[in-house]
Each structure stands twice: as structure tokens, then as C-alpha cells.
Amino acid sequence: MDKNRVEGTKHEIKGAIKEGVGKVTNNPVKEAAGNLEKNAGKVQKEIGKEHDRQRDYDKHH
Question: pTM for the whole thing?
Fold first, then answer.
């Protein structure tokens, strides 16, 4: 498994927590920062998935 998948998942979870805390505490800056980190984590995770797909493809062809 590509390290980007693991790191992306971590960022996605951390971002979701920050976003939730921002909502609960009525802190739009923390909420926005959490949303940004969550979405960046999703992108990083997708990059990792693509690396895994490419590695599997190369292994079988």
C-alpha cells in the first residue's frame, strides 16, 4: 500500500475532527481549516490509490 494512502487517510480524519470542532465551537476559521485538510487528505489518498494501481499494472504486464 502506498504511503500516500495512509497519510491521506490521517489528514482526512484530522481534518474532519477539526471541522467538527469548528462547527461545535462556532469557529469558522477552524472549520474551514479542517475542511481544507480533510479535502487535501482525500486528494492525497487518491494519489496513493493511483500509485498502487500503477504498481499492480506494472507487476502484471
Answer: 0.86
Going by C-alpha positions, the residue among 15, 42, 18, 39 that lies closest to residue 30 is 18
Contacts of 41 (CB under 8 A, 6+ apart): 7, 8, 9, 10, 11, 12, 13, 14, 15
Burial class (CB in 10 A: 0-12, 13-18, 19+), 19: buried
Return the DSSP state at 25. T
Among the ranges given (2-6, 11-15, 31-35), the one the predictor scored with the smallest mean pLDDT: 2-6
The terminus-to-terminus CA distance of the chain in angstroms comes to 19
Structure confidence by residue, pLDDT tens digits, 14-51: 999 999 999 999 999 999 999 999 999 999 999 999 99
